[in-house]
Structures are given as structure tokens and as C-alpha cells.
Design a protein that fits this description.
Layout lengths: L1 E2 L6 H11 L12 E2 L6 E5 L2 E10 L2 E7 L2 E7 L2 E7 L4 E5 L4 E6 L4 E11 L3 H9 L6 E4 L2 E7 L5 E8 L3 E4 L6
Antiparallel strand pairs: 1-10, 2-5, 3-4, 4-7, 5-6, 6-9, 7-8, 9-10, 10-11, 10-12, 11-14, 12-13
């Protein structure tokens, strides 16, 4: 799934985390570092094209290696602007905290906290739809994904394994 507030897709951030983590080593927790600017994202949802961009980003990230993968913690403030091609818009408070737990293979990802979720590709869009989740949502609580990659790293399948207790369809916020 694409976690806009989380630097691209969960896969991207898990690859980031797992790029510094090794399954057989564990590292102590380090300091939080600035997450940095997030690039704008264009998504087809809500019967239109949405442009999603950060308004204010004061988030910080810490990646901790574990024996089984990585734990990614994000803290701070993030305000996201969602603008539809027809002029409707919404500002979403997507501030954390959030904890992302990724397996060493990156196949299993669990997010806890507040997440701004959009699909990064058609497989992820299908998984969101199959789980009854909107294509663009703000969630609170644990949400789990399972993604299967081929030998070249290409995404073969994805599924939502656990749906969070709170889901807000961002399309309903557009005015």
C-alpha cells in the first residue's frame, strides 16, 4: 500500500528499512532523524484525479534492526492537502505516531497508528477493494499487509490481512 505520509509505499519504506537491516543482527535504537520532504502524488480516486501533497511536514523517523526484520517509528506533525481535479479539496491531519513492523523479507508489514493510505499499483488497489477499504483513506489502529515478491523483486500479489478499526474515506472529506 502506498503510505503517502510514509515516503512512498509501505514497500518502499520497508525496503529502506530492510536495506539497513539484516535478519541475523539486531541494532540498538538510534536517534530520530527528519523524514524529509515527500513528493506529490497523483491518484485516480473519488471519481476524479487527486493531487496529494504535504502542507507541513515535521515528522521524524527512526529505523531499528531486529532479528526478524525492522521496526520503523515515525513521530511528529504532518498535514496533507488533497485537491481534486474538479476543485474540491481537503486538508488532512495525518500526524503520527506510527510504528511499522516489517519482516526480513518485506512480505509482511504491519502498521500501527494513523496512516494516510493510497494504492501504489493496481494489485494494491485490488487488495484495498477486496478488504472493503476506500482507495484513499485515513486509518487509525493496526493494519496488516502481506505482499509476495518474485525473484527479481517484482510485486506478484498483495492482500490486506488485518483491517483497522477506524477508516475514514478521504473522498467524503472533499468539499
Amino acid at each position: 500500500m502506498r503510505i503517502f505520509r510514509r515516503l512512498g509505499s509501505t514497500i518502499a519504506i520497508c525496503v529502506l528499512a530492510l536495506g539497513v537491516a539484516t535478519p541475523s543482527s539486531a541494532a540498538p535504537k538510534g536517534d530520530f532523524e527528519p523524514l524529509g520532504d515527500l513528493p506529490p502524488q497523483v491518484v485516480s480516486a473519488c471519481g476524479t484525479t487527486l493531487t496529494i501533497d504535504e502542507e507541513v511536514n515535521r515528522e521524524r523517523i527512526r529505523v531499528t534492526e531486529t532479528d526478524t526484520g525492522a521496526i520503523i517509528e515515525i513521530r511528529g506533525f504532518l498535514s496533507i492537502s488533497v485537491v481534486a481535479a474538479d476543485g474540491r479539496s481537503a486538508t488532512v491531519n495525518a500526524s503520527g505516531p506510527i510504528t511499522i513492523t516489517a519482516s526480513a523479507t518485506g512480505n509482511v508489514v504491519e502498521l500501527r497508528g494513523r496512516n494516510f493510505i493510497t494504492p501504489g499499483n493496481p494489485l494494491q488497489a485490488a487488495a484495498l477493494a477486496a478488504a472493503g477499504l476506500p482507495l484513499v483513506s485515513l486509518t487509525s489502529g493496526p493494519i496488516s499487509f502481506q505482499e509476495v515478491f518474485g525473484p527479481t523483486g517484482a510485486l506478484l500479489s498483495t492482500s490486506v490481512e488485518r483491517v483497522p478499526p477506524v477508516v475514514v474515506d478521504v473522498c467524503t472529506l472533499l468539499v
